């Protein structure tokens, strides 16, 4: 049961987020988000992840961004290009999306 502690901690952090933190995307962020969505549509999961993580690193907090990051990590995690931790990152991004838009 040791693995439940980190997962519980991650969920606690995600639940601390509120819908007030979600912000509308500015034009530059919206363009980067659209590029990530297109990459995801082409099956370029790693490219989509890089774009979405860059936005998150810049402090962009939006439920759609978090949801698409969850989808990108989940799809890569079930592909031949899977990397350790992909499914865990997908779960965290999904919990973040749910906290931003319950």
Write a brief caption for the model:
By secondary structure, this protein is mainly alpha-helical. It has helices at residues 4-16, 27-42, 45-57, 63-77, 86-100. Helix 1 (4-16) runs parallel beside helix 5 (86-100) and helix 4 runs antiparallel to helix 5 (86-100).
Q: Topology of this protein?
A:
Blueprint: H1 4-16, H2 27-42, H3 45-57, H4 63-77, H5 86-100
What does this protein structure show overall?
- This protein has 102 residues and is mostly helical.
- Helices cover 71% and strands 0% of the residues.
- The chain has 5 helices and no strands.
- It has helices at 4-16, 27-42, 45-57, 63-77, 86-100.
- The model is unreliable at 1-5 and 8-21 (pLDDT under 50).
Per DSSP, what share of the residues sits in E-state strands of 2 or more residues? under 5%
Q: Could you tell me how far the N terminus lies from the C terminus, measured between alpha carbons in angstroms?
A: 28 Å
Q: Specify the oligomeric state.
A: single chain
The residue ranges in which pLDDT falls below 50 over 5 or more consecutive positions are 1-5, 8-21
Content-based structural category: mainly alpha
Total strand segments: 0
Q: Shape from CA axes? A: globular
Percent helix, as a range, is over 70%
Number of helices: 5
What's the order of the H and E elements? HHHHH
Main beta-sheet annotation: none
Rg from Cα: 14 Å
The average pLDDT is 83
Give the tags.
102 residues, mainly alpha, 5 helices, disordered N terminus
């Amino acid at each position: 049961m040791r693995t439940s502690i980190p997962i519980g901690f991650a969920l606690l952090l995600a639940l601390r987020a509120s819908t007030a933190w979600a912000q509308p995307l500015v034009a530059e962020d919206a363009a980067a988000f659209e590029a990530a969505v297109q990459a995801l549509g082409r099956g370029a999961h790693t490219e989509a992840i890089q774009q979405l993580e860059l936005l998150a690193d810049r402090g962009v907090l939006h439920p759609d961004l978090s949801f698409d990051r969850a989808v990108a990590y989940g799809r890569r995690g079930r592909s031949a290009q899977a990397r350790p931790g992909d499914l865990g990152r997908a779960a965290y991004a999904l919990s973040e999306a749910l906290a931003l838009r319950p």
